[in-house]
Amino acid sequence: MKKPERIEELIDIAVRQLDYSYAPYSHFHVGAALLAKNGEIYTGCNIENAAYTPTICAERTAFFKAVSEGVREFDAICIVGGQNGVPTDSAGPCGVCRQVMMEFCDPEEFAIIVAVNQEKYEVYSLAELLPVGFGPSNLA
Ligand code: THU
User: Fold this and answer.
1) 94 in ligand 1 pocket by Cβ < 6 Å?
2) Ligand 1: does its nearest atom lie under 6 Å from the Cβ of 55?
3) Which of 30, 49, 104, 110 could serve as a FRET partner for 42 with CA atoms 20 to 30 Å apart?
4) Do 87 and 117 contact (CB within 8 A), yes or no?
5) How confident is the model at residue 4 (pLDDT cuts 50, 70, 90)?
6) How many A from CA of 44 to the centre of ligand 1?
7) Is the pLDDT of residue 2 over 80?
8) What values do phi and psi take at 35, rounded to 5?
9) pLDDT (tens digit, 9 = 90+) per residue, 69-99?
10) Is 28's C-beta closer than 6 angstroms to any atom of ligand 1?
């Protein structure tokens, strides 16, 4: 996977989202920055719930914000996460979020930046993190 454009900016924005995370149950804060093909960056954080299952991940918050504004084409997402809002290790996207990415992104082209900070990050394609994924083309 080639290095996506605006990677430093995406990491910076995802890290800043950690402050908005609402995670009173797990205390695991996640921030996301989603780069749309139109150049806009959509932000997201995880939002937990006392009933647990309504919890939404940072990545899906960002995707649903964008899609709800009519934006459906994306180049990359950056994800950071850590206990009490301090990222120490890579936090890859959960399976549900990978499936949501599959709905709107080209699996070979969409870049997933799993970051700890500006110096420490990995870049994967969606195809690498969701091989043989099921998507819209299967129903076409
Ligand atoms: N979480 C995310 O926001 N993104 C992921 O891809 C993995 C998990 C959140 C959900 C929950 O609020 C917390 O991290 C612990 O699972």
Assistant:
1) yes
2) yes
3) 49
4) yes
5) confident
6) 11
7) no
8) -95, 115
9) 999 999 999 999 999 999 999 999 999 999 9
10) yes
Task: Give the position, in ligand 1's atom list, of the atom nearest the Cα of 94.
Answer: 6
Q: Is 84 a pocket residue for ligand 1 (Cβ < 6 Å)?
A: no
| Separation of alpha carbons 107 and 126, rounded Å | 5
Closest CA to 63 of 17, 91, 32: 32
73 classed as catalytic: no
Strand order of the β-sheet with 74-83 is 41-45, 28-36, 74-83, 111-115, 121-125
Give residue 38's identity as a one-letter amino acid code. Answer: N
Residue 21: phi and psi, rounded to 5, are -55, 135
Structure tokens at 28: 């695991």
What is the CA angle 52-59-9, rounded to 5?
140
Q: Nearest Cα to 100, choosing from 51, 48, 42, 28?
A: 42
Any bridge partners for residue 57, and if so which? none
